[in-house]
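Issue: ligand-bound run for 2-acetamido-2-deoxy-beta-D-glucopyranose - logging full I/O for the record.

Environment: standard queue, default settings, no custom constraints.

Inputs:
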Amino acid sequence: MAKKNPCKRYAIIGIVILVCVCAALTVALDLIVLRSKTPKFRLSSVTVNDLSVTNSTTSPSFYISLDAVYAVKNPNFAPFHYPDTYITFWYGGKRVGVGRVNEDKAKALSTKEVGFKVSLNSRAVSTKNLGRDIRSGMLGLSVGSELRGHVEMLEVVKKNKTPEMSCAMVVNLVDEVVQDLKCD
Ligand SMILES: *[C@@H]1O[C@H](CO)[C@@H](O)[C@H](O)[C@H]1NC(C)=O
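Outputs:
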């Protein structure tokens, strides 16, 4: 009987180890990516850059330019990639301004913060409640958006996640500041 070839034995051991390593990696990727949490998408700050209001009962109006910062907080061990989208500012059920979000990613276990500008105007708003709010000096706004992104590891394992932004704030028209910024 011929002696067993030791090379053959090493090759088999090598393959077994490789299979185990691949299986372990797959399980690890699975744990990291497939069980990932939905990132948080929020406004982290909003300041007034420019503001003009027409304080009249017959034709009240506003124009407000804001400097804002949005934050994408990624709690996962893999990066979160997100595409271009918009952040919509609402007043009295009407869209009054839209900010832009450019495609980007939030690295693992980190928060991506990006500044953007947005101009709001009252063109689409009915005058009735607007006149009352401008007289009171306080304008309540809500802000909404969503990121249809995914958590991705080594371009192999992907998991879709859609964090939604839902914020509210008050623009103090007299002091020209944003107050009471709150996000869910
Ligand atoms: C609008 O006018 C009223 C009354 O004159 C005043 O109390 C209010 O502060 C004014 N609003 C703004 C935003 O200037």
